[in-house]
Structure formats: C-alpha cells, structure tokens
Design goal:
mainly alpha; 68% helix
Amino acid sequence: MIGAMVNVMDQYLETLLMTLTQFLFVLLAAPLFSGILTRLKSMVESRKGPSIFQPYRDIWKLLHKETVFPNNSGTIFRYGPYAIMGIYSLISLIVPILVPVPIFFTASADFLGGAILFSLAAFIKLAAALESGSNFMTMGAVRALSFNFLSEGTLITVFFAVSLITGTNNPYVTNSFLSSNPIQGISLEHIFATLAFLMLFFYETGKLPLESSGLMEMGMIEEGMNYEYSGKLLAINRWSSHIKQYILGSILLNVFLFPWFLQSSFPWYILDIPIMFLKWMLLIFIVLVIETSLAKMRLFRIQDYLATAFAFSILFLIFGVVVG
C-alpha cells in the first residue's frame, strides 16, 4: 500500500513538473520567437532591426507605465486583456506544444474545445474594442468581424480534419498517432488540412503583408484593436499575442508538419525545449520566406485568402468522408 502511494506521489510530482515546465516555457519563450522573426526579417530587408529581446523590453517598459482609459470605455475594455491572457494560458495546457503527454488541465478540453476557446478570446477582444469609445478601434473590430467568420470556420473544420484522420479529438493522442504513423503525413486529407492551417496561421498571427502597424492606410486589424490601450493593459495584450502565435505555431509543428522527436519520459522531457527551439527555427524560416515573397494585398483580398483556406479544409472532408 505504501509503495503504491509513493508511486502515485511520484507520478503526481512528475506531471506537476511537466505542467510547470510547459506553462513557463510558453509564457517566457513566446516573445523570443517573435523577436527572432522580426530580427531576421530586418536582416533580409537590409535593415539593422531591433534586438531579438526587444519584445521583452517593450513588455517590461509598458508594465511600468501608467494605464490611461478612454472616457467612454466600458468594463470589458478594462478587464478583457486579463481574460484573454487567462484563456491563452489555459489553451497552452490543453494542446501538445512542448510535452507530448497529458499534463494537468489537459482534460479541460479537446481540439474542438480549444477552437472554441480561441473563438472566445477573439470575441472578448472584439467586444473590448467596441466598448472602447474609439472610432479607430471600432473600425478595426468591424474589419476583424468581416474576416473572422471564415477564419474560425477554418479552424474548427481543420480540427475536425485531424479528428477524423486519427479517430479522436484528444490532441495528445493525435500527436502520438501521427508520430507513429508517418504515412498519414502524405495523405491528401492531411496535406489539405496542413495547407489550411498554415494559411490560417499567417492570418491569425498578423503575418499577411497588409497587416503592418506602420501602414494605417492599408488597414490595421490587430493593431487597430490595441489603439487605445496603454501601460499594463497594452503589455498584457502584446504578451497574449506572442503566446497566441506560439500556440498556433506549435500546433502547426507538432500536429501537422513535424510531430516527431518530442520526449515524453521523465526527466528526458526537458530535451523538448531545445527540440522545440529547433522546430521553431525551421518554422521561422518558412514564415520568413513566404512573408518576404508575398506582394502586399489590399484589404478586401483577405476574404479571398481565407476563403481559399476554408476551401482546403472542406476538401479534406470531401476526400476523408465522401471519397474515403
């Protein structure tokens, strides 16, 4: 009996350490990957560019600045950033973005639940923008609304795609299945789902050429919804954006592109940190090549872009359900 209790306690402590490792890695490393991408993009464009640690400096500086609220702002505007940060923190414990085995809070949701949590965070951000009392933030929210019906539909359909491939909604079982069955990676279903999620990743993380905070005339979406934020709330919003980018990128890597090499045993799971770093360097290279090669799009072309991503996800259903 005592031996069984000791084993249970050991498993509990191992799971706790894995949970803390994954959560802290996402929280602390997410801004670094954004900084590396920005630095490399500057080098490609023959500019010096900021340091790879500039996102940390920006967050630290904003956390120590005063927060100013617009006169007509509402409750959601003031507390929405905290809720969004909490939602992304929960998602970081649901999907295999570092440790490929279930940890604490994994049972909180499956793939579909994760998609709904992403939609909830987007809804809170839109509601906060509409409650800001700022015409500019409202314009950014309306633009986002005109595109999100396609992006969220694509996200849910893609998660259905991998669920039908593997027969489960559990993201950890999906990762294990795909890593042990590499032949699935070259199936038409998986290829269409991967293309759809890759296109969605570019939109959701603001990597499309027109989403540049320095080009207001071309239409700011993400930056437009941060326009009236300042101080601590702006820091939290930016930090949340870094975390969202890391979560989506890691899902793309660990579920769609490269589900291999992650270590699941204790204490070797710590090797997942350099493994994920190398995977992200490859993803940053892919993003850099595509982002610097695309011509700048006009605002209305985003709907065409997202419609194409949605079509890829629907093609999966045709090949996977009708044909298969």
